[in-house]
User: What shape does this take?
Amino acid sequence: MTLYVSDLDGTLLNNEGQLPRETAKILNSLIDNGMYFTYATARSFSSAGKITSALRLRLPVITYSGVVVGDGVTMRYEMLPKAELSGLFQALEKEKIAPLVYAVIDGVERCSWIRGLETSGILNYVRSRDGNERMRPVDSFQDLFTGEIFYFSHIGTEEKMRHAKKLFSSVPALNAHIQQDTYFPEDFWLEAFSAGANKARAVQMLKDQLGADRLVCFGDNLNDIPMFKVADESYAVANACEEAKKRATAVIASNEDCGVAKWLYEEYE
Assistant: This one.
């Protein structure tokens, strides 16, 4: 049995960040016929779930780049040890670097940020989620670092994100990386989370859980490469970054051409 796992943004989704109707139709037909399919994304469960609501998924999904895996009822988080983050908290406050902080607070997943210290990228992110109950504006660094933290992200210029990455990378418990925004090329995203968590580990765990004997992955960006390395076969869409293409088994049609769905249709049928 084969487990198929696709990235979302830039891979399964089109350039507007939407799931094409043709992709949903093909995938639902294949899933109904028994195909084991899910996705692995840097998005939250909430954000990804809204965009992929047309899919009749039956498997757990991988979110926050492998930090959170679940189906909305049962969720497994890779929490960060706060004792090892105290130096980072102090450095961020000293330099007034205020990232988005994702944590479970009183049993509820929340995303916190400091009002007045937002970058333009964070402002865009927050405004796009107006009305989302997860969003939690705060007024101090003390409040920013509340709860059981499992993920950090920051959005801004490449120069500023590289500087911030140095602070996060100084913490052994964290894995930090930067990549260009799929939809706003002027922005770069910094992500930081448990050093033991990534898409590769998450897909392997899911493969073992399901008893699958083959893993096929699809992606377009640098954070998909670890997943490519553990897959039996990996496919980069035509619009993928060059590094992902080099690491892939082959290159398929682009996200705009429903490349993943069409490849799966040919393969599975």
